[in-house]
Design brief:
345 residues; alpha/beta; Alkaline Phosphatase, subunit A; eight-stranded mixed sheet; three-stranded mixed sheet; 27% helix
Length: 345
């Protein structure tokens, strides 16, 4: 009886060929070089354009207050300095929104365009961060950056908490690509007011000032906390503000989040019709070349748009991305705050 021979199918042949292609180089039968994965550099996002005539400030100081609704501050007589000086003379952004609850992530959004996956429970990052951020970008571009924190026990300290100081409000400490030395010269992690220069010409290009947990309106019942924070701003920031108006410099006052409390925290949605759920906050630009008034900024802005505005001003690569709920609400990643500025011919 003749033997029945079965020919291999085309599929079987293809599979065998693929197996041999992987195995032969490893056993030395064919002199085939192992494949090498090409290292393709990922280009950084280009700086956003900053039109000629818009100001490029010698100095910008950003002060961050805590946990108050827009409606709790604007028009409140207990916030007399904010309303009667900064808002009256500055540009008040009427639709500015924080990105999340609780506090910590919002500081990272403002500084780096991301919450850096720190979670929503105000825990200090467990490892150094190396992603792009405002401080690193400024220094790389030949400018300067410093952060001044009230209650920081010593220059360069990495302590999580001490008395009324809280590192969760000081994002630059967590980035290894921002100087963290032990002197004013080689650290971006400085004390307020001890290391804050009395000669404002000596300030860095951009500086953050972080009040302690009492003076940032965080601790205490609502109205006494607002009184304390407003008084602190008048005592400690008004000198710089008055100087800034005559010296091509800017003050930005903003808040980390509103007062809406959630045990679990999480991302908020600026498109929500309830301003509490939308995380509506006060932000004021005040200083030189500012047109006083209230500005809605189209669909609104977030901390990321404040960051984008500074990045464009100093021709820095963009860090991070806009929060996804903000994008859905029509707040673009590349939207810049420009209409608040006087344009010079």
């Amino acid at each position: 009886m003749a033997r029945n021979e079965t020919k291999p199918s085309r599929l079987t042949v293809k599979i065998l060929a693929l197996v041999l292609a992987f195995l032969l180089p490893t056993v030395g039968i064919l002199p085939v070089a192992s494949p090498v994965l090409a290292q393709v550099p990922v280009p950084l996002p280009l700086p956003l354009p900053w039109a000629a005539g818009l100001p490029v400030y010698d100095h910008v100081v950003i002060v961050v207050e805590e946990n108050k609704d827009y409606e709790q501050i604007i028009g409140n007589k207990n916030a007399a300095y904010i309303n009667d000086v900064l808002k009256k003379e500055g540009a008040s952004l009427t639709k500015c929104y924080a990105e999340e609850h609780h506090s910590e992530g919002n500081y990272f959004w403002l500084f780096s365009g991301s919450n850096q996956h720190v979670g929503f429970t105000d825990k200090i990052p467990s490892h150094d961060l190396t992603t792009g951020n405002l401080g690193e970008g400024l220094i790389h571009a030949g400018h300067s950056f410093k952060g001044y924190s009230e209650g920081l026990p010593e220059i360069g300290s990495m302590v999580a908490e001490e008395d009324h100081y809280a590192r969760k409000h000081v994002p630059w400490v967590s980035f290894s690509n921002v100087p963290r030395g032990k002197t004013v010269a080689d650290s971006s992690n400085l004390r307020f007011p001890q290391d804050f220069p009395s000669d404002y010409d000596s300030l860095p290009t951009v500086a953050f000032v972080i009040p302690n947990l009492i003076n940032d309106m965080h601790d205490g019942s609502t109205q006494p906390a607002i009184v304390a924070g407003d008084k602190w701003l008048r005592q400690h920031i008004d000198g710089y503000y008055k100087w800034a108006k005559q010296h091509n410099s800017l003050l930005i006052l903003t808040f980390d989040e509103n007062s809406q409390f959630s045990f679990t925290g999480g991302m908020t949605d600026p498109g929500d019709k309830d301003p509490k759920k939308a995380n509506h906050i006060v932000t004021i630009f005040a200083g030189a070349h500012i047109k006083p008034g209230e500005y809605a900024e189209e669909k609104g802005v977030t901390h990321v748009n404040i960051l984008r505005t500074l990045e464009a001003m100093y021709k820095l690569s963009r860090s991070g991305n806009q929060q996804f709920n903000a994008l859905k609400a029509g707040i673009a990643d590349d939207y810049l705050i420009k209409d608040v500025f006087d344009v010079t011919p």
